[in-house]
Amino acid sequence: MLDLLITNATLPDGRTGMSIAVQDGCIAEVTEGLDAPAHEKLDAQGLLLSPHFVDPHFHMDATLSYGLPRINESGTLLEGIALWGELKPLLTADALIERALAYCDWAVAKGLLAVRSHVDTSDPSLLAVDALLEVKRKVAPYLDLQLVAFPQDGVLRSPGGVDNLERALDKGVDVVGGIPHFERTMADGAASVKLLCEIAAQRGKLVDMHCDESDDPLSRHIETLAFEAHRLGLQGRVTGSHCTSMHSMDNYYVSKLLPLIAQSGVSVVSNPLINITLQGRHDTYPKRRGMTRVPELMAAGVNVAFGHDCVMDPWYGMGSGDMLEVAHMGLHVAQMTSQAGIRQCFEAVTTNAARVMHLENYGLEAGCDASFVLLQARDPVEAIRLRAARLKVFRKGQLLAETPAATASLRLAGRGASTSWMAPKHAG
Ligand code: FE2
Question: Which of 279, 380, 319, 389 is nearest to 115 (CA)?
């Protein structure tokens, strides 16, 4: 007797009429049209069943602090960093934990069950590190929280930066972070990349650096990051986040850079909502979009994922933990409007992001965790267009969240009684 059997599901790869059999928290079988005894059965009615969403880039120590102690008036990255500096002395562990747990509730309700969060290590007390390690323990039964030691003020620029970061790793933070474009000079930025990659190599850790979050086309730390990943044998274990300067780089240089990133096995995480909001602030017109070269990186064979980065914090006042909103913005900014492009944007918040985080047992195949989302949509394109309702969210076979289907009742003479914004299928 199975624990759970889902029938008549559409999968992201386009297969329809699929049954997913679940036993002991794992997917036992994925087969077309299977019927078998099960304690619980769910007819998906042809709707999309997707592996859960994954956010590979977030800041959970800052989330839901919007307005504390004041609002970012200029809207720039640098005022956001300054504002965060004003907030840090006021932080308490209890308030930080409460906000982070509230955000994790939002995430689960949106089918977002794995988050990589940077945690600022600049404060020698490591208050935020301890708080997020506590949050990680608390949410472990329902959400995978991976932490990155992030020296927000610059690991070389701020006194004790290296020591603070190493102590955070000693405490159990998972990944080595960095912010080379915020160091004092390009040379210091490159030195920080080398140092941090060496620390990761010695400790057997993954790397994820904020890299070139700038409009400056000469901010080229991604080159050093790729070189160090290659030199230290860290292929597949290193991520460059943001990489917005690539948007403004000279095309000839990029033609050399893309193969280097691909050969080094470095993943790139773009954060569409934040990049379109924070970059280009020094421009008048034309005003740059400020997001990295997503389709070009993908075409070069680089694993590219989308992150949410911020929700209601010093840098960004919007957001609700919805990775479909992230994918929606990503496809607009990157102009990835082909059917294939839209599907790639869906992969950027699911499978590609899972690869960045090295999630084990992720996917919709036999042997994977039974952690998936039933969406009120018939395919990934419709899911992104509608930011579709997460009808049911399962983790390891357990139902964690339900949302009613989105419908509107209509009072139109001679027309149907309701709509759920699903377009009629083309006939023939
Ligand atoms: Fe970030």
Answer: 319
CA of 242 to the centre of ligand 1 (A): 7
Q: How far is the CA of 309 from the centre of ligand 1 (A)?
A: 5
- Over the stretch 98-145, which tens digit does the pLDDT of each residue have? 999 999 999 999 999 999 999 999 999 999 999 999 999 999 999 999
pTM value is 0.98
Residue 301, C-beta contacts closer than 8 angstroms, at least 6 positions apart: 262
Q: From the CA of 193, how far away is ligand 1's center (Å)?
A: 16
Burial 61-79, CB ≥16 within 10 A → b, else e: bbbbbbebeeebeeebbeb
Domain with CATH 2.30.40.10 in the chain: 2-46+363-409
User: Tokens 């083309």 — which residue?
Assistant: 426
Ligand 1 mean position to 241 CA, how many Å? 7
Burial (CB count <10 Å: 0-12, 13-18, 19+), residue 427: exposed
Q: Which fold has domain 2-46+363-409?
A: Urease, subunit C; domain 1 (2.30.40)
Told to judge if 228 belongs to the known catalytic residues of this protein, a careful annotator would answer no
Please count the other Cβ atoms lying within 10 Å of the Cβ belonging to residue 141. 10
CATH among 3.40.50.880, 2.40.30.130, 3.40.50.1580, 3.20.20.140 for 53-357: 3.20.20.140
Nearest to 117 by CA among 277, 309, 278: 309
User: Catalytic pick from 183, 213, 325, 382?
Assistant: 213
CA 316 / ligand 1 centre spacing (Å):
11
Which structure tokens are listed for 313? 């914090």
